Amino acid sequence: MLKIYTDTDTDITPAIAAEYGYQLISMPYSIDAQTTYPYVDFKTFDAHAFYDKLRGGVLPTTSAISKDQYMNYFIQDFAAGNEILYVHFSRAMTNTFDAMDQAIAQLKEQFPAARFEEIDTKGITTISYAIVREVGDLVKAGKTLDEILAWAREEVDHFAMYFFADDLKFFRRSGRVSGLAATMGTLIGVRPLIHMSQAGKMESIGTVKGRQNAMKALVDKVAELGSDIDRHRICIGHTDALVLAQEIGRMIEERFGKQNIEYVDVNPTAGSHCGPNGVGVCFHAIHR
User: What is the Cα–Cα distance from 244 to 280, expressed in whole angstroms?
Assistant: First the structure.
């Protein structure tokens, strides 16, 4: 039997996980030495309350989960001899998968009949959300594990994500965006455009003056790189900036006609690095 997993860094909520049958692995964040596990320590993510804390000066930290925690997530399906597929956020952005690899190696020794496979979305938050949803659609359509893996080898790099941040102190603190000048935050009104690279890392690709121009730049990227966008979801992620996200959605539909647009709250663990008032667009593309 095929069992599927994803994690909270992909923006998947328990309701969406249940729709597909995903088991949800919780990725923690900490505020004032208090560690919180999304959808374990709370049932519903109050995005506005969380990002308001960040607006008030709170700077959360994030951490990896342990080998034992991974063991606890997977051991039941290993013991049952199931096929296991984990669709997760980018390996290139974290060391948490070192602990997972250790757990999987031990579980394979104990339960050699089980099969474990993974799909690295080479992203985090909204781009991962789009890919996790597409994999879930394949599972619901009855595709086999090998068919799903073949789809991923072809398609993962055809999902692009471009976004801008409103306050660069969060990215500067985490150091997770290459090419982002530390002084950029002092330039009033300048916003870097950031994308998820084919290597699974966040990269700054330029700057834009003003929020309206930044929004237009995201729509321009859809025009430049979009491929078969009518046949896929366009996912617009935001860190408590729904009005901006909806405006970008309107701009997209003005240019391309009616689309299947989903608005996604960026999860708190990833949002700890992005900060509030950021918006990004994920779409099917000729390349990232």
Answer: 10
pTM: 0.94
3-state secondary structure of 111: coil
Q: Which residues of 233-265 are buried (b: 16+ CB within 10 A; e: fewer)?
A: bbbbbbbbbeebbebbbebbeeebeebebbebb
Closest CA to 271 of 91, 53, 15, 98: 53
pLDDT at position 174, please?
Answer: 60
pLDDT tens for each residue of 51-97 = 999 999 999 999 999 999 999 999 999 999 999 999 999 999 999 99
The pLDDT of residue 182 is: 42
d(Cα 198, Cα 281) in Å, to the nearest integer?
Answer: 16
Alpha-carbon span 190 to 212, nearest angstrom: 11
Token pair, residue 18, equals 């249940």
Q: 122-153 pLDDT, tens per residue?
A: 999 999 999 999 999 999 999 999 999 999 99
pLDDT band at 10; cut points 50, 70, 90? very high
- CA dihedral of residues 160, 192, 206, 282 (deg, nearest 10): 10
Give the Cβ contact number of residue 78 at 10 Å.
Answer: 23
| Angstrom distance (rounded) from CA 287 to CA 227 | 9
Question: Minimal CA–CA distance to 176: which of 194, 163, 189?
Answer: 194
Q: Which residues contact 17 (CB under 8 A, 6 or more apart)?
A: 6, 23, 24
Q: Distance between CA 31 and CA 42 in Å, rounded?
A: 15
